[in-house]
Amino acid sequence: MSAVTMNLASRAPVAVKAKRNVALRRAATTSKSAKTVVSCSAARSDDATPGPVKRLASAVVGLGAAASLALGAPDVATAAELEILQTPAPASGKGYIVDDSGLLSRAASGSINSRLKELEDTTGYHVNVITVRKLVFEQDPFAFGDKVLETWYPTLEEGNNKGNLLLVKNTKEGAIVGGPAFLKGVGNDVLDSILSKNIPINLDDEKYGEALTSSVDRIVAALEGKADPGPPVKYEKSREKTYKTKEETNEKREIFSNVVIGLLVISFVVPMVQYFGYVAGDPDWDGD
Description:
Elements: E1 2-6, H1 14-29, H2 34-37, H3 52-71, H4 76-86, E2 97-99, H5 106-123, E3 126-132, H6 141-152, H7 156-159, E4 162-168, E5 173-178, H8 180-186, H9 188-204, H10 208-223, H11 246-280
Parallel strand pairs: 2-3, 3-4
Antiparallel strand pairs: 1-5, 4-5
């Protein structure tokens, strides 16, 4: 399955990562054979033999258990990562959210579930929203999201119209992964815009719920063939200086000094002029 992702904190620039991911999606959606779309065709067989992804998940679980025995209680994030891999795929029409890090409010969860249920009922596309506090074993959100998708939907037929929207709280990273039909339905432009605008703009202000709900709205609109609501508008803080330069301060100081001197002169000169005028007009005043 193909996927697209973006590192929002410490990874390569968005433009570079987006180009790589677009190439991956195009390779998956334009392939003429199922073997090209499915990177591990052996894992897609329907026999009873566990596929590589499931064996890898079991190995990771075993490694985590061994580490916990050797080092004591496992890290909460480590346990969460393993629990997500072991969580059964959300049943159609019953749930679409695995909020392991607790980022969504009850209102936001209800809104997302309602939107995604309506989407599946009308189009057949199934989208899951996953949150995790941090990644330990697989630190790339793209790789982890793809691993979860392949674990839940191990065959091409199962995962063709499925998609996962993943958010990592600790690193403020996001990923969108899915089958060829899902990625083609959403489109490269919307996918790249969500990863470069909806997620980073909202996460800059730690608006995790808004990042997820706005991303879901755009995904649903694209899959339903409706107008794209568009990305959020980033509020640019005013960069105008709020302080005075040295030249401006000196200029103001000179004006103030001139005003003060003028007032002092007036306060001395005016009384003296009034006094002399009074004396000059008094006939009884004798200068001697």
